[in-house]
Amino acid sequence: MMKTLVVAATKAELTFLYQHFNLDDGDFVEAKNFDILITGVGMVATAFALGKHLTHKYKLVINLGIAGSFDRNIELGSLVNITEDTFAELGAEDGENFLTITDLGFGENTYKAKCSINTNILKVTGVTVNRVSGNDKNIRNLMERLNPQTESMEGAAVLYACQKEHVDCLQIRSISNYVEPRNRDKWQIGLAIKNLNDWAIAFLTDMN
């Protein structure tokens, strides 16, 4: 039977999912219709974990997590479906200009999620970064260059791996904060994780 692989950077982002399905407390957990893979934070850890675990027994990969939003029209705690994600820092600086890896002729920096499932969740574009944005100058530069709506540290790596393995992929994230100079007092991580897990539990239950 073809299964679904649920991928997240941290176990904390899937706390209620583990509890609801009474799953073993591991970084790779096999259930009846889906498996869970906790990769660790960042695109390198994510790519390595997927390289070990992403096989053709999976019909779908769901990347779940929290994210920051550049778009103030998206309320904190809202779910988004990131259908296009870009490696924001992969390339070269040429004075004040930035050359992407695509510009340099060494590959692609933007990947699209291929999935036939309609979730009715707001579709957005995202960037994947090694350094979460936290100062005005860098945020302005990123918005002028790529105009993303969301930011994460793993998303594009998941889309990259799924494209290479020809596996359908959904990237569903919940907005925990706005991308701005770092201010943890404004973050809504608890709300974001609860809403994310509520959706994931319902989605995985419906698949059974």
Q: List the strand order in the largest sheet.
A: 4-10-9-5-11
Q: Profile the largest sheet.
A: 5 strands, mixed, barrel
Query: How many strand elements?
Result: 11
| Poorly predicted regions | none
Q: If you compute it from the alpha carbons, what radius of gyration comes out, rounded to the nearest whole angstrom?
A: 17 Å
* Basic shape: globular
Strand content: 25-35%
Distance between the termini: 12 Å
What's the pLDDT, averaged over the residues? 94
Helix content: 25-40%
* Global structural class: alpha/beta
In DSSP terms (H or I, runs of 4 or more residues), the helix count works out at: 6
Keywords:
208 residues, alpha/beta, five-stranded mixed β-barrel, two-stranded antiparallel sheet, globular
Question: How would you portray this structure in words?
Answer:
By secondary structure, the chain is an alpha/beta fold. The protein is 30% helix and 32% strand. It is built from six helices and eleven strands. It has helices at residues 15-20, 43-53, 101-104, 136-146, 155-165, 189-207, and strands at residues 3-8, 28-30, 34-38, 58-69, 79-87, 91-94, 97-100, 110-112, 123-128, 150-152, 168-178. The strands form two sheets. The protein has a five-stranded mixed beta barrel. A two-stranded antiparallel ribbon has the order 6-7. Strand 9 (123-128), helix 4 and strand 10 form a beta-alpha-beta unit. Helix 2 (43-53) runs parallel beside helix 5. It is globular, with a radius of gyration of 17 Å. It starts with a strand and ends with a helix.
